[in-house]
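Thread: "does anyone have the structure for this chain?"

Original post by V.I.:
We have the sequence but no experimental structure in hand. Need at least a predicted one for the grant figures.
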Amino acid sequence: MTLVRSLGILGTTLGVSLAMGCSAPPSASWWKGNLHTHSLWSDGDDFPEMVVAWYRDGGYHFLALSDHNVLAEGERWIDADRTGHEVLARYRARFDPGWADVRGAGDSLEIRLKTLEEFRPLFEEPGRFLLLRGEEITDRFETTPLHLNATNLVAVIAPQGGTSVLDVLQNNVDAVLAQRRETGVAMFPHVNHPNYGWAVTAEDLIALDGEQFFEVYNGHPLVNNRGDATHPDTDRLWDIVLAERLVRRAPVMYGIAVDDAHHYHGDGRRQANPGRGWIVVRAEVLTPSAIVTAMEAGDFYASTGVVLDDVLVENGRISLTIAAERDVTYRTQFIGTRRGYDAPMQPALTDSTAPLRFRYGDDIGAVLSEVEGTRPTYTFRGDELYVRAKVVSSRPKANPIVPGEVEVAWTQPVVVGGS
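Reply from O.Q.:
Generated one for you, tokens below.
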């Protein structure tokens, strides 16, 4: 048995060196970041500087503000009534006198939103904190909402539209990739909250060309991560997409966790608060190109609270080292699909409005092994298409969006080849 490629483990050391048991460079570090959050530039409820300060002060290393169909550039004034005077007072108190640009008075008071280039020097620090330019390209097909994030953009991308859900997604992915080719800047798209409005099916993601990422966890209360009776949860969706893409010799898709924050004043299950989901990327330096390169190699994990000290693939196995917390237990599920799984079947539908296109067998995304403790290991049998790990802790998640939610981490899939 050989490993064809490890996705999510060794960053720039992937490939032939993996079969020789090499690990990540000793100088590589883990960088915590969020790629999906909002400010007053669109439908967030706080100033971009206050949003950035929340993440930087909370121990994040990088952040992409991803407001809807806009970049934080150009001149924009908003009514003070939109923020509330307490929010404005906190904003003015946080920064030097004269930082806030205001005009008018009373009911006519307006505030100018600062641009990314204006506030970036307040926060960025080499090796400590990085801001990425982002946009949530917000489109639709008929009444179906279709959202796609673009990270490290140079210029804003208008929604591209299309003749179907897949066509809209593909057109927007293509626009991001075209900008990358034209500018030479490393950037990438990712599909947002596929279960929001039950908008994106497994079949759409299977067929999507040039896309490597989707949100396996989104902290907005309206996104339906857990699915329902007729829609798979996002973990199940991921496995269907992985299996079907790999048997078609298409690239895998990586899973991202985000908070999709809009609300920074008051916590609760009805609020889209910050800090619910994030990614941790392994790279040698904290720069946009290094973060993008590592993510495209799959050298990152997604989390809602669980911290991993190491993820390693060598000598025919995958091993995790979990950062243990006192009085917390950990259960790691090694999830995968073996070659020769039952092919999906088109159901006989009595209700033509039912959303299910195909039925997928339980051997897709099966739990291949379940291990307790902080040093779980899985040895590849050789007939797996891929294996990924999901670490489930006993610790309840702070500020959950659903009752009973606990802290989790997801590694990226390891693609396995046969001898």
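V.I.: this helps a lot. The mean pLDDT is 91.
O.Q.: and Residues 77-112 form one domain.
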